[in-house]
Design brief:
Elements lengths: L3 H23 L8 H18 L2 H7 L4 H14 L2 H5 L9 E6 L3 E6 H25 L3
Antiparallel strand pairs: 1-2
Helix pairs in contact: 1-2, 2-3, 2-6, 4-6
Length: 138
């Protein structure tokens, strides 16, 4: 489309879209949201960017190809199964680790967050692959 107003707004909306995507990802395994909604929000910025510029420019600005996002996401999701298997419990049993920090206090990290990160990356990759496949003429 190459609208100058959309291009200027894209610089500021990047922070907004990616912040909301991160917030949805982090709070997702305890509240509505999570990897799916966060991945859609992150991909929505790229969709908006391809409207402001062109799809070819948007694809060139992306440092990693969408297929690699999908591969990394599926790998993270599969890695989240391993702690449950090795501890002798069920396949997708949530296992948590506590990390004590001086700045934030006790932080609990677990396999549901790793699974959400995997879903986030996979949804983002699929959405971007869909967008770029439909929009770029060869």
């Amino acid at each position: 489309m190459n609208s100058i107003l959309l291009q200027i707004a894209a610089k500021y909306l990047k922070i907004l879209f990616l912040s909301f995507a991160f917030i949805a990802l982090i709070r997702g395994h305890n509240h509505p949201g999570g990897g799916f909604i966060g991945g859609l929000l992150a991909a929505l910025y790229i969709v908006y960017n391809s409207l402001a510029f062109t799809s070819r420019q948007s694809k060139q600005q992306l440092k990693i190809r969408p297929e690699h996002y999908m591969g990394a996401g599926l790998t993270c999701a599969l890695l989240s199964f391993l702690p449950g298997i090795f501890s002798g419990t069920t396949l997708m049993k949530g296992i948590w680790w506590s990390i004590n920090t001086s700045l934030f206090g006790e932080i609990k990290l677990g396999t549901p967050l790793l699974f959400d990160i995997g879903v986030f990356l996979t949804v983002m990759g699929v959405t971007l692959l869909f967008l770029f496949t439909l929009s770029i003429k060869k």
